[in-house]
Amino acid sequence: MVEVVAALIWDMDRFLICQRPAHKTRGLLWEFVGGKVEPGETKEQALIRECREELAVTVAVQNVFMEVVHAYLDMTVHLTLFNSVIADGIPQRIEHNDIRWITPQEIPQYDFCPADTEILKKIVAVYATGGTNMNFAEIAQSRQSCRSYDATRKVEEEKIAAILETARLAPSACNGQPYHICVCRGESAKAVAKACQGMGMNKFASDAPVQLVISEEPYCKTAAVGAKVKGNDYRSIDIGIVAAFITAEATAQGLGTCILGWLDSEKIQEICHLDGKVRLVITLGYAKTDDKLRTKKRKDLVELTSQF
Ligand SMILES: Cc1cc2nc3c(=O)[nH]c(=O)nc-3n(C[C@H](O)[C@H](O)[C@H](O)COP(=O)(O)O)c2cc1C
Q1: Alpha-carbon dihedral sign for residues 81, 83, 87, 88
Q2: 9, 64, 59, 58: which is closest to 32 by C-alpha?
Q3: Within 13 Å, how many C-alpha atoms sit on residue 199's CB side?
Q4: pLDDT, position 124
Q5: How far does the centroid of ligand 1 lie from the alpha carbon of residue 247, in Å?
Q6: Which of 136, 138, 174, 183 could form a disulfide with 222 if both were Cys (CB 3.0 to 4.6 A apart)?
Q7: Where are the domains of the chain?
Q8: 2-128 maps to which CATH number?
Q9: Which atom number of ligand 1 is nearest to the Cα of residue 201?
Q10: Which atom of ligand 1 lies at the shortest distance from residue 262's CA?
Q11: Choice from 236, 260, 265 to test ligand 1 binding pocket (greatest atom count within 8 A of CB)
């Protein structure tokens, strides 16, 4: 059995694949960067060496994503695929015919080495519906108010469920969660979008296939007392936090959002049968492909922060 290691390297929602040279066995098939473990090497050392030799990058080797055993005609390999991140360098095409960053959805467009089949299935299972593999800083960088939706593209129900589950985990004053989230699709989404328009505002909202309506619920007793005694509007803060959780999870799922505060509460309460005042609507859907990431305009840290 030949011990082989390989790296699963992500850049936002894409992972790196390499095409074997035409003259080698399994020529022109795609694979993960990696290779055989040499005598005296640990698997991690072998992977670092292979990534340097094949791509001129230094990787930080993390946990094992998957192990597979595959019998080729010429040898049986035990392949260990490690989650890895590039610590230094930009991948260069040194040994391979080509290298590419692809999304899990693009896997069917490539012919992979047979040993990778089960791994690719797992990548699809873990990531293809979940969207991306971003850390929080990357989510914060890539979240932006989406004002150009692909009206023809439905949002998968499992993605909506994942967003709501994350919203459920948002912190709130006295853990009171003084809000309600109503998910509107189809005609009710259109009606909510309309109730967020007027005076030229929020025209784009009509193209978003889902609208998340956040309305007020009464405070719990302790938060009500605290808000009164301290003169602090905890409910608005709580609603802001849950909106932040929702937009962050949507970004992680590869979806676009825009928080709307320009809205007609009474109309939306009627549409959604809500007693509480509507505080925010969040448009949700896939951004059009030409909706590129804008440069963030923000106050600089000197103005925004102070330190003692
Ligand atoms: C409470 C709140 C209300 C907002 N209301 C609207 C709105 O009605 N329409 C809109 O287009 N954007 C709205 N926005 C989006 C902001 O304009 C946007 O977040 C801000 O300009 C920063 O841009 P970015 O989200 O693309 O980073 C709102 C954002 C927040 C947090």
Answers
A1: positive
A2: 9
A3: 4
A4: 81
A5: 11
A6: 174
A7: 2-128, 136-285
A8: 3.90.79.10
A9: 9
A10: 8
A11: 260
DSSP 8-state class, residue 127: I
Question: Mean pLDDT per segment of 10 residues, for the chain of length 308 residues?
Answer: 95 90 93 97 97 96 91 92 92 96 92 94 73 81 94 90 91 98 98 97 98 97 96 98 97 94 98 98 92 91 96
- Angstrom distances, CA of residue 234 to CA of 50, 104, 106, 218, 281: 54, 41, 45, 11, 19
CATH number for region 136-285: 3.40.109.10
Q: Identify the residue whose tokens are 């694949």.
A: 17
Could you tell me the pTM of the whole model?
A: 0.67
Question: Which 8-state DSSP code applies to residue 73?
Answer: S
Residue with tokens 């309460």: 269
Residue 182 CB: number of other CB atoms within 10 A? Answer: 19
d(CA 132, CA 217): 33
Dihedral in degrees, nearest 10, Cα atoms 149, 151, 154, 157: 60
Provide residues with CB under 6 Å of ligand 1: 144-145, 147, 202, 258-262, 296
The rounded distance, in Å, linking the Cα atoms of 198 and 24 is 64
Tell me the two tokens of residue 287.
């951004």
